[in-house]
Write a structure and sequence with these properties.
The complex is a heterotrimer of chains A (about 475), B (about 525) and C (about 375). Chain B is α/β, with parallel strands linked by helices. Chain B contains 16 helices and twelve strands. Helix content of chain B is about 35%, strand content about 10%. The radius of gyration of chain B is 26 Å and the shape is globular. Chain C is α/β, with parallel strands linked by helices and about 375 residues long. Chain C has 13 helices and 16 strands. Classes of the chains: A alpha/beta (about 475), B alpha/beta (about 525), C alpha/beta (about 375). Chains in contact: A-B, A-C, B-C.
Chain lengths: ~475, ~525, ~375
């Protein structure tokens, strides 16, 4: 058989056969095989990997992969009312331009001396984010809203030395799966669920009181809640928690904070959440970007698992640079009954997007987008409530999401959504499995990207589908 | 490499860029936001009235007010004060497998059929991305020899954490959850291999190297008992040595009823050459960012794909991608599952890039990746060991695979110049600061380069030449190295502030306040 | 701001070693050393350490002793200094060292640098205790104490970091010396005299990758919490000397004998600062455990500084009941060398050899080799 001509791979400069031979000669071996001698023979794979034939040229590859992707229907093509933790907002072009700059996109982790620009972006991200949520210190971003919620709860336990946390029953069951996994075998020995009032969907204060004990490390709420409601009793809950020696942690949608009071204003000790709405594409759920922020209290900062950066003076001359924060290691890390959390690769590219987004939006942009969302989502809620058979069970104020109930239509959410899909509409998230008590309900999400026309189109489609 | 290789006369782009907040001009706007239509406003009234009075924001957030070109310019300048792999030689960043991230894959990620997908869309509208996830799963099954994959962990650390959670769940399911409370690792494994089991409550027993630099098998024997839950290790280890007794390690741990996981963060040199499953491991993970070319993004988002054998598949996080006939779906019905480790399904856009990367290479190309990584590393070793002051410890003279941990101990003893001084000096030559070592630093004055498949011979020679030049400087004029950087983006920072809470300025507000107070 | 540092050179330190003597303490040995051809080592070593401080030449003012005891070395290295006291005539003595160290303590120097061995360290300890940071430049024959830099250059480096404010921590380090009184037969026996405060090089770790890098104090705390958390009722715990074990007593809220051995039962003090005999009495008829840490710079577990826990005690308690504690930093400072035991009893030494689990933190152990 004639010997096949070796492929020179564009991504592998030293795949040129002559280069390879010269390098082998310099290393002093006959072939690469000699360099694999440390691996015991019996552990070596003795056949080629079974992988599909590659597309060696870029145009062929591009065509093949985009061909698969074209089987997807995006939220650009269809009209989407999905939210439930991942949100469609407009992503400014400047944001995409910046995060696609090779310096940021392909950075690893240089120090201040090689990557000062990244440190400055991180410092600016933290400065803007903490101000938005009403806190004073935050670290590098974390994975998502759920794991940062879990971190907030574990921090409560570590700071107070207590073992139980209170979590409202309106927190999403899928988020609870993350939190439970995160708290299992940790300082948090029990997660107690706090009831919400069936009429308003807001937290039942009497149940908070009943469940606060000497073991309660913290009380966690979400604002807005998973079901969309704006929780108005934050201040009271904070007082109850503090009077009990417990901490108060709040999970937020930062997009709401141009118009809603930041948790720092109503007594939160720890704020967590997901900054995906602030300039990050949904990416099928890959756009999540968590954060945890605290007040400038040494003992609280010491329990923050992510890395922290601090601006610093130069040793000589004017100007500034950045340090990674090292003193946390001196504090109570070791005093934990159980071991540390871990840190590592997270979502820094997305926090870069957040920084650009917040800089573009400014205080007025954040206020205006919040106002537009409020008006459009309330309008949508009204419009849908006007459809015979459709109810919006919770009268409480909401931000971008609200519950829509279809019990009286005699149709399941899943059937309704299937019919909407035929009309190129993604209906709201089906809640019938997650919250069976709500019957056939869906969680609808509206944002600044929806026009009045879009909302009317939804209402019309629903009318047809239900009829 | 010629002795007088010309080093580049690099100069960083020092923009001396002020802080964003100091550039704010009252009234400027970076972007305008759509208003609700008049029909909507007349229907629902003022936005303010839609918020309960006590929940209205009183003071606007302290965000800068800037016009669009000024925002763009600010961040463009900051990007230019960052050394990304696209521009810089990242050979020094070992254990991290920095490689080229193909631009065509970025273009694919930017398509709305990827970027603008909501995770709760009907499965019929995401068949494309599910197909990508499923097929990449098949590729990784073949590369690892394992049976099932989860893409949910969003980093290597989270994959190890997930593995540790599975160890827990497995022993609990067998009624041995309390009895088995120890996990064994080695000192040259990644620290997450110790930190993650600790996070889920295990006692961690660490094994030191023997005189050859390999994990001490006698120490392993002495540590095994009915308390052993699992072995969590990195192989090849961080110093580049492949543990030749790896099979015996696995057999002995299995012998006492423990599970075995290997951290494949250092897999670049063994792709297609040796598989974790064939050495008997029950689980392993790959960093899809790094090893499989997805860009690092300056610390994420990434993906730590976790691969497990059949007997552990049931414990993986939900959902798992399934295929029935021609239709792909997400399977949540897994009663033994540990639950979820993050929201949604992991970073699908990372998996998309990996799919495209593997499809651009195929089996032969992956083989070329591994062999080139190993050849490059051994080539660099030849050059570096000729540099005065550089030595190798632990396993001297042994062949290393994808990376090596070297030591400047001799240079430090001779000149007082430390590895960290050199790290700063490197940037003066336009190459990325190197990675010293994971903690603890068992090897003094360490550095760990990893010349992956993406680097050319010239890149490698340039890197080595910079090391030789700095070594020369250290012997001739140590102060020059100690006071570096000189041509970088910044000069030495007052690092002592990082030790004290009262000196730390985490935010612009605190910075301004402390400056005003004259601190 | 200008810093003030002290420098004391013991010019005769190390002279005995080169000619096979066990130390250079006392005029008789020195005489003998000089007779058989020893030359001073310390001045050279001092110079090597001072080289590393060259960058600070104009930022430090030294207080030092006349002539060979520091003045000469500083003058040739080009530092500014003030000489304390009149020039000495003839041979320097331990009293000279102690007097100078006391003066430096009174003057409040930021760091006292001394060049010498175990004997010099003892003299310094007698004079200043733990009241100021001290660092040894190794030059002696006997180097059991843990107060020295690994080389003169490294000591200079550490001093530089400390004086620049880059290594701000201190740790307590053992001062040990051969115990002439405790010589039993031909066996070497080192006594633990006390602890000096030594700069602790904790370089700022600009590291992002996973894994906590706990400081020395937190690591010691973690170890103590782990040990106390696992204490069983009605079992005697023999707490050996050392700062790591002292933290255990602190966690328990009990008084502690830093240089001696205490016994704890049900988290209360059963016996304090015991010798071998009282130790055996205290554990008579009850199950017991021994908690020990590495003593000194050479990695001894038994037989140096904790001889009260004798071979008989160890045999009575049993190997499985020995709890070894040490911070990772201390273990790694052994540079991969095994920990040592020297109980004077071959059988017991053999029994102790092999591998032990060293507790290095909460639920954290390192399997480490032990040799006799």
């Amino acid at each position: 058989m004639p010997k096949k001509k070796p492929v020179v791979y564009p991504y592998i400069p030293n795949s040129v056969p002559e280069t390879r031979s010269e390098m082998l000669a310099k290393v002093g071996v006959k072939g690469v095989e000699e360099l694999y001698s440390p691996i015991p023979k019996n552990l070596r794979l003795k056949r080629p990997l079974k992988l599909p034939k590659p597309f060696l040229s870029e145009p062929e590859l591009q065509r093949h992969v985009s061909g698969i992707l074209k089987k997807n229907k995006s939220c650009e093509e269809f009209l989407s009312f999905l939210g439930a933790g991942c949100y469609q907002h407009y992503v400014p072009s400047v944001v995409d331009t910046i995060i696609n700059r090779g310096e940021f996109l392909t950075a690893y982790y240089g120090s201040n001396y090689s990557d000062m620009g990244r440190f400055q972006v991180m410092f600016e991200y933290v400065s803007m984010l903490t101000d938005l949520v009403g806190m004073e210190v935050a670290g590098f971003p974390m994975f998502d809203g759920s794991s940062s919620g879990g971190t907030a709860l574990r921090m409560c336990a570590r700071i107070t030395g207590r073992t139980e946390v209170l979590v409202p029953e309106t927190v999403s069951p899928l988020r609870m799966k993350v939190i439970e996994n995160y708290c299992r075998h940790s300082e948090v020995k029990a997660i107690r669920r706090v009831a919400c009032r069936p009429d308003t969907g807001l937290i039942d204060l009497s149940d908070v009181k009943a469940k606060l004990t000497a073991d309660t490390a913290g009380v966690y709420i979400e604002n807005p809640s998973y079901l969309g409601m704006i929780e108005t009793q934050g201040g009271e809950i904070a007082d109850l928690a503090h009077a009990n020696g417990s901490l108060f942690a709040v999970g937020v949608n930062p997009m709401s904070l141009g118009v809603l009071a930041p948790p720092g204003d109503y007594g939160a000790d720890i704020v967590s959440g997901d900054t995906q709405p602030l300039g990050v594409h949904m990416n099928y759920g890959g756009g999540t970007c968590g954060f945890v922020a605290v007040r400038d209290v040494e003992e609280h900062i010491a329990e923050l698992p992510p890395l922290l950066t601090s601006i610093a003076d130069l040793e000589e001359g004017e100007g500034f640079g950045f340090n990674l924060f090292a003193w946390a290691e001196r504090l109570s890390y070791a005093a934990r009954e159980n071991a540390k959390e871990y840190t590592g690769t997270s979502t820094v590219l997305w926090s870069t997007a957040n920084a650009v987004y917040l800089a573009l939006m400014g205080p007025r942009g954040m206020k205006e987008v919040g106002e537009t969302i409020l008006q459009k989502s309330h309008y949508a809620k009204k419009l849908l409530a006007g459809i015979p058979g459709v109810k919006t069970p919770f009268p409480s104020a909401h931000f971008n999401e609200f519950v829509v109930n279809f019990d009286d239509t005699g149709k399941t959410v899943s059937r309704i959504n299937a019919a909407l899909l035929k009309r190129k509409i993604f209906g709201g998230r089906d809640l019938s499995d997650e919250f069976p008590d709500l019957g056939q309900s869906a969680l609808y999400c509206v944002s600044e990207v929806h026009t009045q026309k879009d909302l009317k189109r939804l209402a019309r489609a629903l009318k047809e589908v239900i009829a | 490499m010629s002795e007088d290789m010309k080093l580049r006369n690099y100069h960083a782009q020092v923009w001396d860029e002020p802080l964003l907040m100091d550039k704010s001009v009252k009234g400027q706007r970076g972007i305008l936001v759509p208003e609700a239509e008049p029909g909507i406003r007349s229907e629902v009234g003022k936005a303010e009235d839609l918020i309960p009075a006590n929940m209205r924001r009183k003071a606007p957030p302290d965000l800068p007010e800037m016009a669009q070109p000024q925002v763009l310019r600010h961040f463009t300048r900051l990007s230019q004060m960052t050394m990304g792999n696209d521009a810089s030689n990242d050979i020094g960043v070992g254990t991290c497998t920095m490689k080229y991230s193909p631009k065509v894959n970025e273009a694919l990620c930017g398509l709305p059929q990827m970027a603008d997908l909501h995770p709760y869309q009907d499965e019929s509208t995401v068949q494309g991305i599910l197909e990508i996830l499923y097929k990449t799963r098949d590729f990784l099954r073949e590369i690892s020899g394992m049976d099932e994959i989860s893409f949910q962990p969003a980093s290597g650390g989270q994959a190890v954490y997930t593995a540790a959670s599975i160890v827990r769940a497995y022993h609990e399911a067998r009624g041995e959850g309390t009895k088995r409370d120890q996990v064994i690792t080695t000192i040259f494994s990644h620290p997450v291999d110790a930190a993650c089991p600790a996070t889920v409550g295990y006692e961690v027993v660490t094994i030191m190297p023997d005189k050859d630099g390999y994990p001490d098998i006698e120490a392993l024997k002495a540590s095994l008992s009915d308390r052993t839950a699992a072995l969590l290790i990195t192989n090849p280890e961080d110093i580049g040595l492949y543990n030749p007794r790896i099979e015996e390690f696995v057999k002995r741990v299995h012998g006492v009823g423990g599970l075995c996981f290997t951290d494949q963060a250092n897999a670049n040199g063994v792709l297609g050459k040796a598989r974790a499953a064939d050495a008997g491991f029950d689980m392993c993970h790959f960093n899809l960012h790094k090893t499989f070319s997805s860009p690092h993004g300056g610390m994420g988002p990434g993906c730590g794909a976790l691969a497990v054998k059949e007997h552990l598949a049931g414990f993986l996080p939900v959902p798992v991608v399934k295929k029935d006939g021609k239709r792909y779906s997400l399977d949540y019905d897994r009663p033994e599952s540990i639950g979820k480790v993050r929201d949604f399904y992991g970073n699908a856009q990372v998996v998309l890039r990996v799919y495209a990367w593997i499809m651009s290479l195929g089996a032969e190309g992956l083989n070329q990746v591994a062999e080139t990584a190993v050849l490059n590393n051994n080539y660099l070793e030849k050059l570096l060991l000729a540099v005065p002051g550089i030595t190798e410890s632990y396993g001297e003279g042994k062949i290393r695979l994808d990376q090596i941990r070297y030591s400047w101990e001799k240079l430090t003893a001779d000149t007082g110049v430390t590895s960290e001084d050199i790290e700063r000096r490197m940037t003066d030559y336009g190459i990325q600061a190197y990675w010293t070592s994971h903690h603890p630093q068992l090897i003094p004055e360490p550095f760990t380069p990893e010349p992956t498949d993406s680097y050319s011979r010239e890149d490698i020679e340039e890197w080595a030449a910079v090391m030789r030049q700095i070594s020369k400087e250290a012997y001739e004029d140590p102060e020059k190295v100690k006071s570096a950087p000189h041509r970088g983006i910044t000069t030495a920072v007052d690092e002592s502030a990082a030790l004290l809470h009262e000196k730390c300025m985490f935010t612009y507000k605190k910075y301004k306040r402390m400056k005003a107070e004259g601190k | 701001m200008q810093k003030q540092a002290g420098l004391i050179v013991n010019p005769i330190a190390g002279m005995g070693g080169k000619v096979g003597l066990k130390g250079t303490d006392g005029p008789r040995i020195l005489e003998q050393a000089i007779r058989i051809g020893a030359t001073p080592e310390a001045p050279q070593r001092a110079a090597r350490a001072l080289e590393r401080l060259a960058g600070l030449r104009h930022d430090i003012h030294f207080l030092t002793c006349p002539g060979d005891m520091g003045e000469n070395e500083l003058a040739s290295a080009g530092f500014e200094y003030t000489v304390l006291g009149p020039p000495t005539t003839g041979e320097t003595t331990a009293e000279d060292t102690e007097r100078a160290a006391r003066r430096m303590r009174e003057e409040g120097v930021d760091l006292l640098l001394f060049v010498g061995g175990d004997g010099t360290a003892r003299n310094i300890y007698n004079a200043v205790g733990d009241r100021l940071p001290v660092l040894g430049v190794p030059a002696g024959v006997k180097m059991h104490s843990a107060v020295f830099g690994t080389t003169p250059g490294n000591a200079g480096e550490l001093a530089e970091l400390f004086l620049r404010g880059k290594a701000t921590g201190t740790r307590e380090a053992e001062v040990m010396d051969i115990d002439e009184d405790a010589f039993r037969g031909q066996r070497l026996s080192a006594r633990l005299y006390g602890y000096l405060r030594v700069p602790f090089e904790r370089r700022l770790v600009q590291s992002v990758k996973a894994g906590s890098t706990g400081g020395e104090e937190t690591a010691v705390r973690a170890i103590a919490l782990h040990v106390v958390g696992n204490m069983e009722p009605d079992r005697a715990y023999i707490i050996g000397p050392g700062t790591t074990t002292r933290e255990i007593m602190r966690v328990l809220g009990l008084p502690n004998t830093l240089l001696g051995v205490d016994v704890v039962l049900n988290k209360t003090l059963l016996a304090r600062d015991v010798n071998e005999g009282r130790l055996l009495e205290a554990i008579e008829g009850r199950p017991a455990r021994i908690v020990v840490t590495i003593i000194g710079g050479q990695g001894y577990l038994f037989g140096r500084g904790n001889q009260q826990i004798s071979d008989r005690v160890i045999e009575r308690v049993g190997k499985e009941n020995i709890i070894v504690v040490a911070t990772r930093a201390k273990l790694f400072a052994l540079n991969g060398e095994p920990m040592l035991v020297d109980t004077g009893n071959e059988r017991v030494n053999k029994m102790l050899s092999g591998y032990v689990n060293v507790i290095t933190g909460i639920k954290e152990k390192i399997v480490y080799k032990v040799c006799s």
